[in-house]
Amino acid sequence: MINALVLLFFFVLMEGVAWFTHKYIMHGILWVWHESHHKPRKGTLELNDLFGFMFAIPSVWLIVVGADAFDWRFFAGLGIALYGVAYFLVHDVFVHQRVKWLTRARLGYFKAMRQTHHLHHAVHTKQGAQAFGFLFVKRKFLKEYSHD
Q1: What share of residues in the chain are helix, strand, coil (percent, to 5)?
Q2: Which of the two residues, 15 and 107, has the higher pLDDT score?
Q3: How many CB atoms lie within 10 A of CB 116?
């Protein structure tokens, strides 16, 4: 039970880490990497994809160092990894359609998630963007975008 809570804690924590990183790092000092994501994509990969590898480092490290004892570090790393999978499915597959799955949004939450992220991408510069979250949609955006 404790291991499941550790996994869930780190999964949820990653949304905060991702939001902070997106707002202050990606739209800050590492805009040079993230800018590629605010422009039309040329090819399969973009410089912004390096962030996925950066987030994978602590996940892999925690899984490896916690694997022998099968302790909290293993489950923390697994929570981060599962967040990465959810991020890929929601952001890259569902929102940006980098893989043509999940093409229709039927539930209001998913409609709001897609529209909120498109609102973020309406700004093509380092400053002025809003909606920096990935999996959790603010209530104000749910009210605005979740209806038919």
Answers
A1: 70, 0, 30
A2: 15
A3: 23
Rounded mean pLDDT, 113-142:
80
* pTM: predicted TM-score of the whole model, two decimal places: 0.84
**What is the rounded CA–CA span in Å between residue 112 and residue 117?**
8
Residues 6+ apart with CB under 8 A from 121: 38
- Pair of tokens at residue 18: 């991702």
User: Is there a contact between 36 and 48 (Cβ–Cβ < 8 Å)?
Assistant: yes
- Measure the CA–CA gap between 45 and 41, rounded to whole angstroms: 8
51's tokens: 């962030």
Phi, psi for 28 (deg, rounded to 5): -130, -120
Which tens digits make up the pLDDT trace of 37-54? 888 777 778 888 899 999
**Which residues are within 8 A (CB) of 58 and not within 5 positions of it... i.e. 6 or more apart?**
77, 80
Quick one: tokens of 46? Answer: 């973009």
What does pLDDT average to over the chain?
86
The 3-state secondary structure of 100-144 reads CCCCCCCCHHHHHHHHHHHHHHCCCCCCCCCCCCCCCCCHHHHHH
